[in-house]
Design goal:
single chain, 484 residues, alpha/beta, seven-stranded mixed β-sheet, six-stranded mixed β-sheet, 23 strands, 38% helix, binds nicotinamide-adenine-dinucleotide, Ald_DH_C, oxidoreductase, Aldehyde_DH_dom, oxidoreductase activity, acting on the aldehyde or oxo group of donors, NAD or NADP as acceptor
Length: 484
């Protein structure tokens, strides 16, 4: 399969229609698998951000607008949007896969499926939720508690799951009645143009409720500190999250930060290595390792260390590496040349620190596309940089542990706390370990974030939660009205 058409666009979706941008600045997008240019689109300047925020504010303040609609009317619109977007699932899938190298089989499940599921889920949730609740008071007869939309939201999205991570923000924000200004990543900007076209064509949402300002980090930083933004929802690196958190702290602006991770897979001594290989591959290398939640450290019982290293080595060396658009591909390329350089620099660092590559480490003979072979490191310890820092590539570090307490201590000995997994036939032991690992999410014999459950991190992995009812609440402002 190939990308259907070269995408060329000189307009920005602002205020419900494609508008002429303030400058002639552009973004060029290349295919991660072929390095060919696959799109050339307009980039937003500060004046475009001003226009987008103004459009979002006007939409939000319209007394008969989206924020004032009955929740059931908004829910109907979200359901309709889910159906329209679902009809374009394969286009989104192909575009994302071509841009960031996500294997198309993964993209089909996630980028093609999650956005519609999130719109339907949040539509149903807000339909059920009464907008006002009455509580009997202690000092007054009663209190009316209203759930009001928080206002104009800046949604800043990374390149690794561009549609899914956009909709983890957009779906609950829209359900709550907010307006949104989206800043996609320059690496994966084409799918946001497709979404803008769909929104313009179907007019399901009133003008200005969703706006796009594609651009780099400078445009993101300008949006974050814009005086007319009420909340920032950010997914990306911990370094960028810290800087956004500082700005929002100074402005007293609510912010959700979904950041990096260095999670651990704890393999117990009863794990059936042959049976779990496929799930373990997903949990450790999903999307070429370009996933915040992957268990990039595998903790193995010391007595079985060699057996685990051998199983992981087999798993990695048998993974099909190739063009992301090929259905057989299990590991595609890195998103960009710069990112491949970063991943390769960690492989060199690991070797320099004394760890041993048991498979991978190279480019697998690919002279086009930003490929890194799936790589396993043995003879490691938890102090090495390959065990402490987020590599964001198909690189797994296997670390031995002595007993369960040691395994839990190693899992917790990390700056991060986003995810983690445990692999065993004993569910009770698994749940006991799940309760002891300091992390926002955790998987037993699998790792699949579910829309109904809050997702987010502790420590340097972030602040706040997306998904679940908690995700909706983060776009609502409670107001108490005391009634004598
Ligand atoms: P990044 O931080 O470089 O960029 C993320 C987005 O923020 C991009 O749109 C970028 O243009 C923008 N940006 C960067 N600096 C900014 C600033 N100072 N102000 C405003 N906007 C800014 O991250 P990336 O390389 O695109 O994505 C990879 C990172 O994202 C990894 O660290 C990964 O762990 C993290 N991530 C976290 C989650 C999660 O849910 N916790 C999910 C996916 C990715």
């Amino acid at each position: 399969m190939t990308v259907a058409e070269f995408i060329e666009r000189d307009t920005l979706f602002v205020g419900g229609r494609n508008t002429t941008p303030a400058t002639s600045a552009t973004i060029t997008v290349r295919s991660a698998s072929t390095e060919q240019t696959i799109g050339h689109v307009a980039a937003a300047a500060e004046a475009d951000v001003d226009a987008a925020v103004a459009a979002a504010r006007a939409a939000f303040c319209d007394p008969n607008g989206w924020a004032a609609w009955e929740p059931s009317r908004r829910a109907d619109a979200l359901t309709a949007l889910a159906s329209v977007i679902g009809g374009h699932g394969e286009e989104f899938t192909t575009l994302v896969s071509a841009q960031n190298g996500m294997p198309i089989s993964t993209a089909r499940q996630i980028e093609g499926g999650f956005p519609g599921a999130l719109l339907s889920y949040y539509g149903a949730l807000v339909r059920e939720q009464p907008p006002e609740e009455y509580r009997r008071g202690i000092f007054v007869d009663g209190v009316v508690i209203r759930r009001e939309p928080i206002g104009v939201v800046a949604a800043i999205v990374p390149w690794n799951y561009p549609q899914t991570l956009l909709f983890t923000k957009l779906a609950p924000a829209l359900a709550a009645g907010c307006s949104v200004v989206v800043k996609p990543s320059p690496e994966t900007v084409l799918d946001s143009f497709l979404l803008g076209d769909i929104l313009e064509q179907h007019e399901i949402l009133p003008p200005g409720v969703v706006n796009f300002v594609p651009g780099g980090r400078e445009i993101g930083a300008y949006l974050v500190k814009h005086p007319d933004i009420d909340k920032v929802a950010f997914t990306g690196s911990t370094a960028a999250g810290r800087s956004i958190g500082e700005v929002c702290g100074r402005l007293l602006r609510p912010v959700t930060l979904e950041l990096g991770g260095k999670s651990a897979a704890i393999l117990l001594d009863d794990a059936d290595l042959a049976a779990i290989t496929s799930d373990l591959f997903g949990a450790t290398m999903m999307n070429n390792g370009q996933s915040c939640f992957i268990s990039s450290r595998v903790l193995a019982p010391r007595r079985q260390y060699q057996k685990v290293v051998d199983a992981l080595t087999d798993m990695a060396s048998s993974a099909v590496v190739g063009d992301a658009l090929d259905d057989k591909t299990m590991i595609g390329p890195m998103v960009s040349e710069a990112h491949r350089e970063r991943v390769e620099s960690y492989i060199r660092k690991g070797e320099a620190e004394g760890a041993r590559v048991t498979t991978g480490g190279g480019r697998g003979g690919h002279d086009r596309g930003w490929f890194v072979e799936p790589t396993i490191f043995a003879d490691t310890n938890n102090q090495m940089s390959i065990a402490r820092e987020e590599i964001f590539g198909p690189v797994v570090t296997v670390i031995p542990y002595d007993d369960i307490n040691d395994a839990v201590a190693l899992a917790n000995d990390s700056e991060y706390g986003l995810a983690g997994t445990v692999w065993t036939r004993d569910k009770d032991r698994a749940l006991d370990i799940a309760r002891r690992v300091q992390t926002g999410t955790f998987g037993v014999n699998t790792y699949v974030p579910d829309p109904v459950a809050p997702f987010g991190g502790v420590k340097s992995s972030g602040i706040g939660r997306e998904l679940g009812p908690e995700g909706l609440a983060s776009y609502q402002q409670p107001k108490s009205i005391y009634v004598p």
